[in-house]
Known about the structure:
single chain; 381 residues; alpha+beta; four-stranded antiparallel β-sheet; 10 strands
Amino acid sequence: MPRNIYDEDHEAFRASVREFVERTLRPRAEEMIAEKTISRDIWLDAGKQGLLSLDIPEEYGGAGADDYRFNAVVAEEISAFNAATASCFGIHSDVCPPYIVDLGTEEQKQRWLPGIASGEKIIAIGMTEPSGGSDLAALKTTAVKDGDEWVINGSKTFITNGYQADLVIVATRTDPTKGAKGITLFVVEDGMPGFTRGRKLDKVGQEESDTAELFFENVRVSDENRLGPEGMGFISMMQRLPQERVGAAVSNTAHAAQILTETIEYTKERKAFGQPIGTFQHNKFKIAELVTKIEVTQAYVDDCIAAHAKGELTPVDAAKAKWWSAQVQNDVLDECVQLYGGYGFMNEYRVARAWRDARVTKIWAGSNEIMKELIGRDLGL
């Protein structure tokens, strides 16, 4: 089925993103895996190409695109390259900037947004804690008012971009008596005394992503680093999670679709018993199922992209897109590994890495179980 959500401007932009992938990312794919990070010069190149600034207004050095379909184009093309780079760029350019654009003061916007747009200041968001997982309302990191400053204590874990982040949006508890209404956001900056990072976490997949633990020990921040009103942090996160979740759905679908395309080509070339393995009826039927799953999923995700571009995407629909695309991606890639046979279990083959990289997508951005809980509640259950 043809996709109808993009016009000529989006496709022209897609061509420039693909050129960036081929020129900058693909030649350094193995380097990123070996170093478990995306080098600073790659971030700067992405900034020069305008890939990190779509949600940032022009007056702060951004593109001011104001059309989520451009964000989706970037996510699709980078995800086709690999899942980890798409995740790092997505957190930096899709997830974090709206917090500052929507909640920040004029001084905060001028201080932080230009560097985010250029790639000079890498940003992360610290929600998840070692003891909390998906339960954001139960976070334990605290911020206590002390004169004109706040003193932050606690820790965060599984933070994408955490190891090299220059800025971190940190969710803290400022009033222990108010539950979800006692949470406030702060921007912690690299070099602040008491702000430290653990090692790069050793993950099953997505090795290119520098995921880290963050520690805050009596970190003093000015009230000028408070992001949004006191006590509104949880609501602010809930309001912006739909963009993170539809972005995850876009990436999940594009990543799986690309690997499936490569797998189909492999089944045409690989021979067994004197014929291409794709011509065996079982494999032919399995591939037909996988292609249909991807295209049906793409149709729903495209509707979510279009709705979000109009400001009409609901949190429940974003939850549906997130969990379904994550499940389909994992199902499809598992079958792709099977079609490759023993080679599918070798790290030198993209399908093996993609299979490992995809597993976390059923956990992050709200686990699939939490997504189903949100959908169930909406149904009055």
